């Protein structure tokens, strides 16, 4: 299931929100909106004014896009604040959407969102590589840049994704509760991308 990452008054926020409306999928594909949701998950809640400081966009633009995100349930108003200085927070820690749909409109919107996110991943990795020379040696050695070519069935690939998710899950929640993170922990983005290599011949036709 695709995923991209504070306590609420009534308890812990949901782990993920699932988008199935093609209008919501298209709305979320906007680069600034994805940035705002990501920042709210890691540094929120905050106001449109703070959002403008973090993104370099205007307050009016951030306010508009936050309202669009709220329309589709990705963000919501947080307690406190006055007038235009009302704070916003993310409604969940991750976003999910259909990987496959019989509805062509949903499938098209989901594919467009995946393309936008892939572009965002590329930009973030490129930026990390440009700054990598400033990192201490232990972080440079710990970072991972590699790929593997595996011959798998759809069921095996699904199972592999579930195992990866299970390995990462114990580390979730540290961003909203710093007390869970050990000394020396820093924010690390872990990307999971697995796609079918259609240019490599195979011995048997996939069923």
TrEMBL record:
Domain of life the protein comes from: Bacteria
SUPFAM superfamilies: Winged helix' DNA-binding domain (SSF46785)
InterPro entries (UniProt xref): ArsR-like_HTH, WH-like_DNA-bd_sf, WH_DNA-bd_sf
The organism of origin for this protein: Streptomyces gardneri
Name of the protein: Transcriptional regulator
Pfam families, per database record: HTH_20
């Amino acid at each position: 299931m695709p995923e991209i990452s504070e306590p609420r008054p009534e308890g812990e926020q949901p782990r993920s929100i699932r988008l199935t409306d093609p209008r919501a999928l298209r709305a979320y594909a906007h680069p600034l909106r994805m940035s705002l949701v990501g920042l709210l998950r890691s540094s929120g809640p905050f106001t449109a004014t703070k959002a403008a400081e973090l993104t370099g966009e205007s307050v009016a633009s951030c306010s508009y896009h936050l309202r669009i995100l709220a329309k589709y349930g990705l963000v919501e108003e947080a307690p406190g604040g006055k007038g235009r200085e009302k704070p916003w927070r993310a409604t969940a820690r991750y976003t999910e959407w259909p990987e496959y749909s019989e509805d062509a409109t949903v499938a098209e919107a989901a594919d467009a969102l995946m393309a936008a996110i892939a572009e965002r991943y590329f930009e973030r990795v490129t930026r990390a590589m440009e700054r990598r020379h400033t990192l201490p040696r232990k972080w440079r050695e710990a970072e991972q840049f590699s790929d593997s070519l595996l011959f798998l069935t759809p069921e095996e690939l699904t199972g592999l994704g579930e195992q990866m998710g299970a390995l990462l899950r114990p580390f979730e929640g540290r961003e909203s509760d710093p007390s869970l993170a050990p000394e020396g922990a820093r924010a690390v983005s872990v990307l999971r991308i697995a796609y079918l290599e259609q240019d490599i011949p195979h011995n048997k036709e996939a069923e």
